Amino acid sequence: MTKAIKLIGMGDDGRLSLIPLYEKWIEESEVLIGGKRHLSFFPEYTGEKRIIEGGLTTIVESLKNETRNVVILASGDPLFYGIGSYLSGKLPIEIYPNVSSIQLAFARMGERWQDAYLTSVHGRSMKGLAQRIDGKEKVAILTDAENSPNKLANYLLSFGMTEYQAFVAENLGGETERCRWYQLEEMIDEQFSPLNVVVLKKAKQGPTWPLGIDDQEFIQRKPLKGLITKKEIRTLSLSALRLKENSVVWDIGTCTGSVAIEAGRIACEGSVYAVEKNEADLENCRENLAKFRVDATVVHGKAPEGLAEFPDPDAVFIGGTGGGMAAILDVCCSRLKPNGRIVLNAVTIENLAEAMSAFKERGFKTDITLVQISRSQPILNLTRFDALNPIYIIAAEREEGEK
């Protein structure tokens, strides 16, 4: 039977960061596992050394029937974006954390960190970071050599996040430790150690937008304005989607991107994927995404083209089908995750009837809302109302027992 394996967190200063008991466990072990940097702190070790390279699958398989005394070394707190959570689900592990780099960074700043938003782009894509951090007062980010502070600064500036200052803490706890404040523009051409933490702190108020962004705030095609899901319809459609913070959302026929943007701001820990056939609208959509700080994936094509590249959705909004409703619903209905919802907006009774029939054929039940909105308009010193086009909001979900 495999003995309990000790997973010990270390600081950048190596052995100096370990209490005597942890050093004793390492000395008494027969197998020592860790990254090259971790193992280099123990040149005199006489047992077997194994370097963690690439994934952890090989290490896990080799330890399942290991009867010797094993110690694994990791950085900081192994349960904070580290290997601890993965290994503890696969092996009998005892975890002994060290001070995390995030804790040290805030200590160097002299700032509390219990109210900070914590995230990582270490070994992860930066995609979606914009909507995750927008509006947060303090953000701590673990980086790596690829997603460096330089790349991070360029990314944030592309979304106009100039309200943030950055504190970059390099080689924390080591002999070459360096901590400095920067404006984002100053970071672009600076040289940084690969071992660093970036803390963003809001220095001034940034823009804010409520749910139901006014239509005129969006960049739209000229002179043919109006190709946008209107604010009131958009808000009701988003409600019908029942989005969660981590939802994966598809927006088909995104046009200006208004629904994708509002969905991204709700599902800020999830992801948004959109498709649009018109190139002019697509360019406006990308500008709107940058303005409203939503980092969505947008492709040029006529749905269902491009949908195969998207991950399975929790929610699908269909603002237009371009005459291809059956093909689009074939993909959306088959790919929708359990308990997911599809919301389709229809202007004509013919499209309503087609949608109802198509959903029924695919084992989906529907709930329809006819929305008739009028907006006030001044007329001299009086007020009148202008009616918007009536819209059918069709919300669909699988019948119980359907796959």
Describe the 3D structure.
With 403 residues, the chain is α/β, with parallel strands linked by helices. It has three domains: 5-99, 3-Layer(aba) Sandwich (Cobalt-precorrin-4 Transmethylase, domain 1), CATH 3.40.1010; 102-202, 2-Layer Sandwich (Methyltransferase, Cobalt-precorrin-4 Transmethylase, Domain 2), CATH 3.30.950; 215-398, Rossmann fold (3-Layer(aba) Sandwich), CATH 3.40.50. 28% of the residues lie in helices and 26% in strands. The protein has a seven-stranded mixed β-sheet with strand order 13-12-11-14-15-19-16, sandwiched between helices. Strands 3-2-4-1-5 form a five-stranded parallel β-sheet. The longest helix is centred in the C-terminal third of the chain and has 14 residues, at 279-292.
Summary keywords:
403 residues, Cobalt-precorrin-4 Transmethylase, domain 1, seven-stranded mixed β-sheet, five-stranded parallel β-sheet, Rossmann fold, 28% helix, 13 helices, Methyltransferase, Cobalt-precorrin-4 Transmethylase, Domain 2, alpha/beta
